[in-house]
Design brief:
Elements (H helix, E strand, L loop, with lengths): L9 E4 L8 E8 L3 E4 L4 E6 L9 E6 L2 E2 L3 E4 L6 E2 L1 E5 L5 E5 L10
Antiparallel strand pairs: 1-2, 1-7, 2-3, 3-6, 4-5, 7-8, 9-10
Length: about 110
């Protein structure tokens, strides 16, 4: 499975309890899941330990499926699907399907 979303991309959630919210991708897992900043919070009950002096209920982001998010284009600012294009030198880049602009800035 080829994931077309990378770390530090801005995505919006299209389905689920956080529908309509957007955030920055913090981590991408190869099995098709990713962690998005301030999206899909879960509560984790922890006991006090050497690492965590204070026990209690911690909130953290849980992985969300790639199919539940859409990439937001840098140019048009809309959620879009991504296609793979190529430059003259043979390098592959990501391209917005709505405005046909490059997403990768390099």
């Amino acid at each position: 499975m080829k994931i077309k979303i990378k770390k530090d991309d801005i995505v919006t959630v299209i389905t689920g309890k956080d529908q309509g919210k957007s955030g920055k991708v913090l981590k991408v897992f190869p099995e098709g899941k990713l962690i998005v900043e301030k999206i899909n919070f879960v509560k984790r009950h922890t006991k006090p330990s050497q690492k965590v002096q204070q026990g209690g209920i911690l909130e953290k982001e849980a992985p969300i499926a790639v199919s539940k998010v859409m990439l937001i284009c840098n140019k048009c600012g809309k959620p879009t699907r991504v296609k793979i294009g190529s430059l003259q030198n043979g390098k592959h880049i990501r391209v917005c399907k709505k405005c046909s602009e490059m997403i990768d800035e390099k």
